[in-house]
Write a structure and sequence with these properties.
This protein is mostly helical and 70 residues long. Helices cover 36% and strands 6% of the residues. The chain is globular, with a radius of gyration of 11 Å.
């Protein structure tokens, strides 16, 4: 598995060709809306980390608090 750059931890990005250009957690292909859906279903940060062990607490918090620009 490819190591993520520490500068991408806790950040959100959108790139053409990755997850249909939807916002993802930087350095991954994990869509923000997927993490938000887990949180909405009552998953704790620790439980989400069990599902996605490459994510940090900062990544998950960034995804949960992310609001797309209108």
């Amino acid at each position: 598995m490819k190591e993520r750059k520490s500068s991408s931890v806790g950040k959100i990005e959108s790139k053409k060709g990755i997850a249909n250009s939807r916002p993802v957690i930087a350095g991954t292909r994990i869509p923000v809306d997927t993490i938000k859906a887990f949180a909405a279903e009552g998953y704790s940060i620790e439980k989400i980390r069990m599902e996605y062990p490459t994510l940090t607490t900062e990544d998950i918090l960034a995804a949960i608090s992310y609001e797309a620009a209108a």
